[in-house]
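Memo to structure team: turn this sequence into structure tokens by end of day. - J.P.
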Amino acid sequence: MSDAIPKRSVIVAGHRTSVSLEEPFWTRLKEIAHARSKSINDLVTEIDSMEPAGGRQGNLSSALRLFVLAELEQRLATMEGPPPGSEQQPAIPKGSGPH
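Reply from structure team:
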């Protein structure tokens, strides 16, 4: 069995390229694409276009991993609610403090 990360061919904005992506990330990326009723190529193109105008820091494979991580973190946050201590404290009305 090889420890190499599989290369996968994708089409980004009409151009064929390849990305090296571990199976769990590829599986989640496909699930996200399916949930959004998009092809994997359309989702990868969208992720690629999210990068700032100055260009991406890192490669497309890294951008895909970070996208999947952010998506899963967002789902987890939605399920759990706000983290402890992040609830806003009620404002104390003026004049009701200690005298």
